[in-house]
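Project outcomes to date are best conveyed with an example. Our students and postdoctoral researchers have been running inverse folding experiments weekly, and each run begins with a structure described purely in C-alpha cells. The record below, which covers 225 residues, was selected by the lab manager from last quarter's runs and is presented without edits.
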C-alpha cells in the first residue's frame, strides 16, 4: 500500500513537474501538479478580465472553478469547465501573471485545502513552491530542486520552442529572475526550503539522474525498494 507522500519544491524552471511526474510513474503514485492549479486560476481570471489584485473576486473564481487534472503518460492534462487548457496555461501571458495570483492568501487557502484532500490517503508526489512547508508539512520525503537561473531559462526556452511559442532566451531569463524574487519575498507561503528537505541542484544533470536520486532518497527515508 502507498502510505507515504513526496513533496518537491523549488523555483521556476527547476524541472519540478517533469521530475515529479516521472518519479510518480516509477513508484506508481499519483502526481499532482499544483503549479497547474495556480496557472488555471490565472488563466480563468485573464479570460474573465478580472482585476488580479481583487482578492475577493479571485478567491471566488478559484472556489467555483471546475478544475480537472488528468494524469497521462505524456504529462498532466488540465481542464476547466470541460475545456482543455493544458497549453493555454503555459503561455507567456499566464506565466507573467501567475506569481501575482499565487500570492493572494484567499486563493492559496482554497487550493491548499484541495491539495491536502488529494494527498490525504498517501501515495502522492506533489510539486510546487510551498509543498514541504505548508501543503504537506508531514510528507515523509521532501526535496528542494534548484538550478542556476541560466540553466532554468535554457530549459524553459527549449520547452516553449518545441511548442511553437515565440519568446526570447533573454526575456525568459529576466522573467525567471523576477519570479524568483516575487516567490521568495511574498508574505503568504513564500518559496522556502523546508528544514528537513534535501537540496538537489539539477544544474548539469539530466532528468533521469535526478529521478534516480529521489528514488534513492525514498529508499533511505522509508525503506522503499
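After processing, the design step wrote out the following sequence:
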Amino acid at each position: 500500500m502507498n502510505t507515504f507522500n513526496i513533496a518537491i519544491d523549488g523555483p521556476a524552471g527547476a524541472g519540478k513537474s517533469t521530475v515529479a511526474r516521472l518519479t510518480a510513474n516509477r513508484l506508481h503514485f499519483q502526481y499532482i501538479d499544483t503549479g497547474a492549479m495556480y496557472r488555471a486560476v490565472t488563466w480563468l481570471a485573464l479570460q474573465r478580465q478580472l482585476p488580479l489584485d481583487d482578492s475577493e473576486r479571485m478567491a471566488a473564481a478559484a472556489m467555483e472553478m471546475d478544475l480537472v487534472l488528468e494524469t497521462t503518460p505524456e504529462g498532466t492534462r488540465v481542464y476547466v469547465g470541460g475545456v482543455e487548457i493544458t497549453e493555454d496555461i503555459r503561455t507567456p501571458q499566464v506565466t507573467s501573471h501567475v506569481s501575482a495570483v499565487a500570492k493572494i492568501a484567499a486563493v492559496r487557502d482554497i487550493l491548499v485545502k484541495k491539495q491536502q484532500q488529494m494527498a490525504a490517503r498517501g501515495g502522492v508526489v506533489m510539486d510546487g513552491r510551498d509543498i514541504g512547508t505548508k501543503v504537506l508539512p508531514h510528507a515523509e520525503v521532501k526535496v528542494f530542486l534548484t538550478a542556476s537561473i541560466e540553466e532554468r531559462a535554457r530549459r524553459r526556452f527549449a520547452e516553449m520552442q518545441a511548442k511553437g511559442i515565440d519568446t526570447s532566451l533573454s526575456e525568459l531569463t529576466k522573467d525567471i529572475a523576477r519570479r524568483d524574487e516575487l516567490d521568495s519575498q511574498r508574505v503568504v507561503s513564500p518559496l522556502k526550503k523546508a528544514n528537513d528537505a534535501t537540496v538537489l541542484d539539477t544544474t548539469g544533470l539530466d532528468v533521469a539522474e535526478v529521478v534516480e536520486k529521489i528514488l534513492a532518497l525514498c529508499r533511505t527515508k522509508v525503506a522503499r525498494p
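The longest helix spans residues 169-185. The mean pLDDT is 91. The training component of this project remains on track.
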